[in-house]
Design goal:
GO terms for molecular function: pyrroline-5-carboxylate reductase activity. This is Pyrroline-5-carboxylate reductase. It catalyses: L-proline + NADP(+) = (S)-1-pyrroline-5-carboxylate + NADPH + 2 H(+); L-proline + NAD(+) = (S)-1-pyrroline-5-carboxylate + NADH + 2 H(+). Keywords: Amino-acid biosynthesis, Cytoplasm, NADP, Oxidoreductase, Proline biosynthesis. With about 270 residues, the chain is an alpha/beta fold. The protein has twelve helices and eight strands. An eight-stranded mixed sheet has the order 3-2-1-4-5-6-7-8. The longest helix has 21 residues. About 30% of the residues are buried. Bound molecules: NADP nicotinamide-adenine-dinucleotide phosphate (NAP). The site of NADP nicotinamide-adenine-dinucleotide phosphate has 27 residues, from helix 1 and helix 4.
């Protein structure tokens, strides 16, 4: 039978996930709930079969999956308002809210709920995301597959065997886009100092970032080997890498990611 999925919150992430599910031609009936009818209208562009609701309790009546896609600040309020219905229907809950733990969700939704906690990242908005997933013990194999299918519609997914590892995922792929943006920003500034104009600098830097990631994903070599292959002794790349190594770029990256993981842990603990 056709599964029914409700997204609560008609914002950026819901738009991407709905677009991804429709692109994947998944056989699901999609509902979206948001108190703002104008927000809801932004979702209807993807399919005329999407059902819109302004009441979360009505929106989850008779469904199989609920995706909680509201900001962490209002998450508790939304959970408490739907908890009776979630418990009665034994629904699968998928949460994409950053830093909201399973313990908190159990407190607000009930002990026995089937929950998959996800940590997606912003490239999900262009269907190139990376998501870490963790399932509560009550989640069945079928529900795991369903959760994976939903999140795979906006990129790659990896399952974690331990909820605490979501803090590491936050430090790697959650915050990761910003590290690459900073590096690209610095490269663009340097490119202009070397004489290129704004547009030339932007295009060369962004295409190089995209091409390098594509090459690494499609290659059998790992990134250290790929780096060695483009670095000939005494050449231009070697001159640049010598500066980055001398300035301790790898140590800086390790420290930065460790700080992100620690902050994720603190935020999850409230
Ligand atoms: N965007 C990302 O790349 C990203 C990455 C990782 C994780 N996340 C997580 O994904 C979640 C959603 O993020 P987002 O960027 O999609 O947020 P968003 O664009 O702000 O979308 C949230 C939507 O929920 C609506 N809303 C507010 N109260 C509601 C209620 N009581 N019931 C139903 N809907 C309600 C909001 O309406 P108003 O605007 O009127 O308040 C808004 O339309 C967040 O928890 C965030 O931490 C996002």
């Amino acid at each position: 039978m056709k599964k029914i999925i409700t997204f609560i919150g008609a914002g950026n992430m819901t738009r991407s996930l709905v677009a991804g599910l429709i692109q994947d031609s998944t056989d699901m009936q999609i509902r979206v709930s948001d108190p703002d009818v104008e927000q809801l209208a932004t979702i209807y562009q993807y399919s005329s079969n999407i059902e819109g609701f302004t009441d979360n309790v009505l929106a989850i009546e008779g469904v199989d999956i609920v995706v909680l896609a509201v900001k962490p600040q209002i998450f508790q309020r939304v959970c408490e308002s739907i908890s009776n219905s979630v418990q009665e229907q034994k629904l699968l809950i998928i949460s994409i809210a950053a830093g909201v733990t399973l313990a908190s969700m159990r407190e607000w939704l009930g002990d026995e709920i089937s929950t998959v906690r996800c940590m997606p990242n912003t490239p999900a908005l262009v269907q190139a995301g990376a998501t870490g997933l963790f399932a509560s013990p009550a989640v069945s194999d079928e529900q795991r597959s369903l959760a994976e299918m939903v999140m795979r519609s906006v990129g790659i997914t990896i399952w974690l065997e331990d909820e605490a590892k979501l803090d590491a995922v936050t430090a790697v792929s959650g915050s990761g886009p910003a590290y690459f943006f900073l590096f690209m920003e610095a490269m663009q500034t340097a490119a202009k100092e070397l004489g290129l104009d704004e547009q030339q600098a932007r295009l060369l830097v962004l295409q190089t970032a995209l091409g390098s990631a594509k090459l690494a994903l499609e290659s059998d070599d790992d990134v250290a080997i790929l780096r060695q292959k483009v670095t000939s002794k005494g050449g231009t790349t070697a001159a640049a890498l010598a500066v980055l190594t001398e300035k301790q770029l790898p140590e800086m990256v390790a420290q930065a990611m460790s700080a992100a993981k620690e902050r994720a842990r603190e935020l999850a603990q409230g």
